[in-house]
Amino acid sequence: MRVTIIGAGYVGLVSGACFADFGHEVVCVDKDAAKIRSLEAGNIPIFEPGLAALVAENVKARRLSFSGDFAASTPNADAVFIAVGTPSRRGDGFADLSYVYSAAEEIASVIEGYTVIVNKSTVPVGTGAEVEQIIRKARPDAGFSVVSNPEFLREGAAIADFKHPDRIIVGVEDDRAIQVMRELYRPLYLNETPMVFTNRATSELIKYAANAFLATKITFINEIADLCEQVGANVQEVAGGMGLDGRIGAKFLHAGPGYGGSCFPKDTIALVRTAQSNNAPARIVEAVVEINDERKKKMAGRVIAACGGSLANKTIAVLGLTFKPNTDDMRDSPSLDIVPALQAAGAAIRAYDPVGMKEAAALLDDVEYAEGPYQALKGADGVVIITEWDEFRALDIDRVKALMKAPVMVDLRNIYRPREMAERGIDYHSIGRPREIFE
Fold first, then answer.
1. In the structure, what pLDDT confidence band is assigned to residue 378 with cuts at 50, 70 and 90?
2. pLDDT (tens digit, 9 = 90+) per residue, 261-272?
3. Residue 347 and residue 358: Cα distance in Å, rounded?
4. Distances in whole angstroms, Cα of residue 223 to Cα of each of 148, 155, 186, 218
């Protein structure tokens, strides 16, 4: 099938490469001319494991191409995916749908023949209906269907998530669109991947509800971690015991500094605003948003306390800046709250992240960036692990101790064992695991 994807960002680029790998003829269109030139030159603007190779393979096979010419790329498409950004709108937290509606207007001006228009962007309930109205008003003669097909891609594992998903959600209002969507996802349909066909409103809400629920699990275990520290319990064992219950599951029960990234922060806020505007307040999600924001701000206090209550004239090494490993995404990362708070307390910051330092440099001021973890640790009065990159899981602890001015480690991801660290002479602090139960 012929597929046009509007937006060559994270979702658009991954989706385009994977659809091309399914055998479809795909064009990714973007208004950013510099991005298109970079993609045509073989440069991938985001860090996602395996994506560069997948793009190169399908470009070589002439199944995937890039263009800045929307009018030339869209008319003959069987399906047009809208994969543009829907950031939180300044001032009220609602999803900013201006890019989605602009794409709809452009689609209306060029489509020819029956076309399925697919909202891949994360959008509030009712957006699909509004997109249909925009196109119908501009082109009452056009044959088209508007479909909701939310993405569930985890940064760092996006290709696997696209090709081996738990489910595919499709919100449709007519049978003809169902057949097109089945053909688009035919390789997955043949592999018996669950395909859930529902109406557009339900599909749109599934995406928000799923992200809000996962954010709630993270926030819940973080609050349990705080309780564990007060009563002498181990949050990892609590989470392990909970996760064995099939009704609960073990995923997203990892205590830490709070969630961040491109989805959970904006989607939880957008769901809250949508619920409020429809007189059905989502009070649990409201609490999740508030607690998570507070938690990220409080994490610097743990570092200050571990370093004796003062960071004046001290150097703190920061390991990990991105919101999660295997991505260069800094959006709403806990580091954006933690690092400035440490600086405000008087600390000099020396940081290292395997791929996120370029992005971090545009967002954080007065940070010294190191070439590796050990360079960051040299002469430091303390170290805080913010992101659990694999290379931080196997540090040479004896070398860490020898390099640091004071062997104080605040591990916000619980990647080390407290007893082992104590035996190695590290003043070790973690989340939800009181030190006395390991001593």
1. very high
2. 989 999 999 999
3. 21
4. 35, 25, 43, 9
Pairing of strands 195-198, 64-67: unpaired
Judge whether 329 lies within some domain: yes
What is the value of pTM for the model shown?
A: 0.93
For the chain, the C-alpha Rg in angstroms (whole number) is 24
Q: Which of 18, 28, 228, 263 is catalytic?
A: 263
121: Cβ–Cβ under 8 A, 6 or more apart, which residues? 7, 11, 82, 83, 84, 85, 86, 99, 100
Percent of the chain at pLDDT above 90?
Answer: 95
Bridge partner list, 3: 26, 79
Per DSSP, 141 falls in state: T
Q: Which residues have a Cβ under 8 Å from the Cβ of 144 and sit 6 or more positions away?
A: 111, 114, 115, 116, 117, 135
Total structural domains within the chain: 2
Domain containing 99 — which CATH number?
A: 3.40.50.720
φ, ψ for residue 369, nearest 5 deg: -100, 130
Nearest to 338 by CA among 428, 434, 410, 266: 410
> In this predicted structure, what is the pLDDT of residue 439?
56
- Among this protein's residues, is 263 annotated catalytic? yes
